[in-house]
Amino acid sequence: MEGTNKKTQVRRIFDSISHRYDFLNHFLSAGVDLYWRKKAIKLSGMSSESKLLDIACGTGDFAITAKKFGVEKIFGADLSFNMLLLFNKKVDWINGKVVETVAEHLPFKNESFTNITVAFGVRNFYDISQSFKTFHHVLSANGKVTVLEFRLPSNLLVRNFYLFYFNKVLPFIGRLISKDKEAYTYLPESVGEFDKKVNLVKLFNECGFSRVKKYSLTFGLVQIVVAEK
């Protein structure tokens, strides 16, 4: 899918489901997504001294988690205006702001942040390599990018259950609750395509990052990649 078409599709989908996004996230993951975010923040090593840019921030769940770990300076970026409206309502206590933008072209000066986080958003980028290069520019020396993303489990039993859930159960429930036929069909399709084509560790290394570490959680359902500048 070409960049412009993908941006338009992703923006439309997330604008459409924004009002049910939080509920569906927690419901469809049985609440495990809360644990995944906490684990990602722990692995990022953030503190009260950190300055965080949360890319594909959605309605602010990662920002809320970071705040609980003592982070005060938090900026959010997303291409969905409706998501950002909800972010502002939920996270009005942060020292920062939200920006409607894409990851490939961030409107920030070089070395503006100590940390960048992306939860379940990298597969929606239209040019992942360009995004990572932009991350490298806006991160300060020794800054870290922490990516939380789905993957296809290697264990065949878990993989088959995962594929059944993602391809059959999730789209049905998603359509029923969100009333958007495309949104929860796009999700499993994007995860499958992403897993086949994208090696996050390799990409981070190619984009100038060092000390890239990868962690697998919950039977290999998700991965956390931490890349240091």
How does this model look, in words?
By secondary structure, this protein is an alpha/beta fold. It has a single domain, classed as Vaccinia Virus protein VP39 (Rossmann fold). The protein has helices spanning 3-28, 32-44, 61-68, 81-90, 128-138, 156-178, 183-197, 200-206, and strands at residues 51-55, 73-78, 98-100, 113-119, 139-150, 210-217, 222-228. A seven-stranded mixed sheet has the order 3-2-1-4-5-7-6, sandwiched between helices. Strand 4 (113-119), helix 5 and strand 5 (139-150) form a beta-alpha-beta unit. Helix 1 runs parallel beside helix 4 (81-90), helix 2 crosses helix 3 (61-68) and helix 6 (156-178) packs antiparallel against helix 7 (183-197). The two termini are 30 Å apart. The model has no long low-confidence stretch (mean pLDDT 88).
